[in-house]
């Protein structure tokens, strides 16, 4: 690393320090006002910003600019235009206007629109988001933007997030004013994603079509060793992995992404990267860029970064824990309980609002993480279950008891932990343990939403959280704003009791993996939506449509367009996987199995001829087993092929989702069981692809 970290950090970002140095004072103030308050930015200010941005970008080697946006594909998109403008006499100038900064016109017809746009309706617009700083990537100035169609329909993941942030800002400010917080002018949702991922050798990756086309292995016998020894978690980093992580940190720091923590995860070849929290909008942008940089950096080291939620069967999958909180522009974390949370009515109101939101809109939280990949992960191997519940710990649970019973609270003394030997330092014990089985866990001053999958844009989950909590806060404010100041505290206590009694069913501090919890959740009436086919219809439930439209996060048309896109993505994903599995059976696995059968048969016959009295019962038993498996695999591959074709006659989108979930995927799982059994009996020399042994233990 040539530069020290402070010099390196943000060196490719048009950040506040650069803006202050490059912009005239009045322009800088106007831009800061827009960033901090959301006020309109005049074109003359945009022109001045564009000139400074272009000069800085060119000084740092940029030749092009792009409006960097997040369509409904789940990844980012960019169209590159150079700064050059012909100046006559065969010469050019480097130019960039405020109009080019503020607005772009990409083709909107080839991105998912869920029926909002016809193929021939091509025009779309991108609009500059000044709250997320521009950056330079591969010689191109990247300008974060929102994306909409010619007629104004939202076609991206950024715009709904910004709308939801406005909603929670508006309603949270109303509540804060009741407590006399006149100095607070802005409330931000803050997010810190924890990104899990797998690394695999690039040559091995390229030898498996399922990894290349689907991001996960569609079959594979387990390796003799998995994660049962618990020796990979937090283990020493192997040199190749360490070199990758070191370069990844440096690349992310250049983009101003506060990469903080890196370590080995539980499963072999699984790792995690955690960043320092920031505002939700910037956190989402940073995470999208992080995933891109992870993949690109891995290739430099002869590796491939797998972001699929379940690339390997039988070991942990990868999630993206979404640490969510609310902070004011004055630096106050609204989910920090202090020492006596029962007496901290402001905190308790925000906690109650979150509790109500998760209870009422738990179905939407489940929908926000519903993908074909995440269905394989949820409910096992340290992933949270598909039942949405909230963990708050024993201390806060006792606070709920106190409020519900109108009892007096007492400040709990801090507990000093000692580990025994005097040489070890003493430290303060946290007020609550961590529950790894909870989908939505309070962790001291934030909530950790653990259901999102590793490949997911965390825009969706945060749109739901922001909007649902905003709705709760708005309802609280509607009621409390009518109460005289002298009776406000009493009314808050009454409100808290009502909310706790109505929504405490969502609180569960136990083990979310047990069958007992599934039954208990059913008795409580909690949402249990195991698969996408169960979750998707909830998105268009009338109560959820009312939520989105009330807070101007989505129009009704935008809701149904996203519903259609969810279904399309699921069907296309399983269809690709099923076709890949059939192809690998016909072209790879069945020929290998047949070759081994022929080899064993020939060897058995030779043994009989040379040594007629030699026992060959073991060979014949193996032959019988392999022949049975060959027949079963051949037949089930044909059944899978027919099942894929059967989907063509289904017109209804949701019915097609159910068909792929309950028919096609079921046949894939059935086929896999026979393939895995057979693979365990075949020598590696007969297989044309790497097995789990190599995939998981090669780096």
UniProtKB/TrEMBL annotation:
GO terms for biological process: glutamine biosynthetic process. InterPro entries: Gln-synt_C, Gln_synt_N, Gln_synth/guanido_kin_cat_dom, Gln_synth_cat_dom, Gln_synth_gly_rich_site, GS_Type-3, GSIII_N. Residues 63-152 form the GS beta-grasp domain. Residues 157-589 form the GS catalytic domain. Transmembrane segments: none annotated. PROSITE patterns: GLNA_ATP, GS_BETA_GRASP, GS_CATALYTIC. One of its GO terms (molecular function) is glutamine synthetase activity. Belongs to the glutamine synthetase family. This is Glutamine synthetase III. It comes from Clostridium symbiosum (Bacteroides symbiosus).
């Amino acid at each position: 690393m040539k530069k020290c970290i402070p010099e390196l950090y943000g060196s490719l970002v048009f950040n506040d320090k650069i803006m202050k140095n490059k912009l005239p004072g009045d322009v800088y103030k106007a831009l800061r006002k827009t960033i901090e308050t959301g006020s309109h930015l005049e074109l003359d200010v945009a022109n001045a910003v564009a000139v400074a941005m272009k000069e800085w970008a060119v000084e740092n080697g940029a030749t092009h600019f792009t409006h960097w946006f997040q369509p409904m594909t789940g990844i980012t998109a960019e169209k590159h235009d150079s700064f050059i403008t012909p100046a006559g006499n065969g010469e050019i100038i480097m130019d960039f206007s405020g109009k080019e900064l503020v607005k772009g016109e990409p083709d909107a017809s080839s991105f998912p629109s869920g029926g909002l746009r016809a193929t021939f309706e091509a025009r779309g617009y991108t609009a500059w988001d000044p709250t997320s700083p521009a950056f330079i990537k591969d010689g191109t100035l990247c300008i974060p933007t929102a994306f909409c169609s010619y007629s104004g329909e939202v076609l991206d993941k950024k715009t709904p997030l910004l709308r939801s942030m406005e909603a929670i800002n508006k309603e949270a400010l109303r509540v804060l004013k009741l407590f006399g917080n006149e100095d607070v002018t802005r409330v931000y949702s803050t997010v810190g994603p924890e990104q899990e991922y797998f690394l695999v050798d690039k040559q091995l990756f390229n030898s498996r079509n399922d990894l290349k086309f689907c991001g996960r292995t569609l079959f594979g016998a387990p390796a003799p060793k998995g994660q049962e020894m618990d020796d990979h978690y937090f283990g020493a980093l192997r040199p190749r992995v360490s070199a990758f992580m070191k370069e990844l940190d440096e690349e992310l720091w250049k983009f101003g992404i506060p990469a903080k923590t890196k370590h080995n995860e539980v499963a072999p070849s699984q790792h995690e990267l955690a960043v320092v929290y920031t505002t939700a909008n910037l956190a989402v942008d940073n995470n999208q860029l992080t995933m891109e940089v992870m993949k690109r950096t891995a290739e430099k080291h002869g590796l491939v970064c797998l972001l699929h939620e379940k690339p390997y069967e039988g070991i942990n999958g990868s999630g993206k824990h979404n640490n969510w909180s609310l902070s004011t522009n004055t630096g106050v974390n609204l989910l920090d309980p202090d020492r006596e949370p029962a007496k901290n009515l402001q905190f308790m109101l925000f906690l109650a609002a979150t509790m109500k939101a998760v209870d009422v809109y738990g179905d939407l939280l489940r929908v926000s993480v519903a993908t074909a990949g995440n269905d394989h992960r949820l409910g096992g191997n340290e992933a949270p279950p598909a039942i949405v519940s909230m963990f708050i710990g024993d201390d806060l649970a006792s606070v709920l008891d106190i409020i519900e019973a109108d009892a007096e609270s007492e400040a709990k003394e801090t507990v000093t932990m000692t580990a025994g030997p005097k040489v070890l330092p003493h430290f303060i014990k946290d007020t609550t343990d961590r529950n790894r089985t909870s989908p939505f866990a309070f962790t001291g001053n934030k909530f950790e939403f653990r259901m999102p999958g590793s490949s997911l844009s965390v825009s969706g989950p945060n749109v739901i959280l922001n909007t649902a909590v905003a709705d709760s806060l708005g309802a609280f404010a509607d009621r409390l704003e009518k109460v005289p100041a002298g009776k406000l505290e009493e009314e808050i206590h009454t409100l808290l009791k009502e909310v706790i009694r109505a929504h405490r069913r969502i609180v569960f501090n136990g083990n979310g993996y047990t069958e007992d919890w599934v039954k208990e959740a059913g008795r409580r009436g909690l949402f249990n939506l195991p698969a996408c086919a169960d979750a998707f219809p909830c998105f268009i439930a009338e109560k959820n449509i009312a939520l989105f439209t009330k807070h101007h996060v989505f129009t009704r048309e935008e809701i149904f367009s996203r519903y259609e896109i969810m279904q399309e993505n699921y069907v296309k994903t399983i269809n690709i996987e099923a076709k890949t599995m059939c192809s690998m059976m016909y072209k790879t696995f069945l020929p290998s199995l047949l070759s081994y059968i022929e080899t064993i048969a020939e060897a058995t016959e030779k043994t009989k001829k040379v040594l007629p009295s030699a026992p060959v019962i073991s060979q014949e038993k193996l032959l019988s087993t392999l022949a049975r498996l060959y027949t079963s695999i051949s037949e089930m591959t044909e059944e899978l092929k027919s099942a894929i074709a059967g989907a063509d006659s289904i017109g209804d989108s949701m019915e097609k989702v159910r068909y792929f979930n309950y028919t096609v995927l079921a046949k894939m799982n059935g086929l896999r069981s026979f393939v895995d059994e057979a693979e365990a009996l075949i020598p590696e020399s007969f297989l044309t692809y790497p097995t789990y042994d190599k995939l998981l233990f090669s780096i």
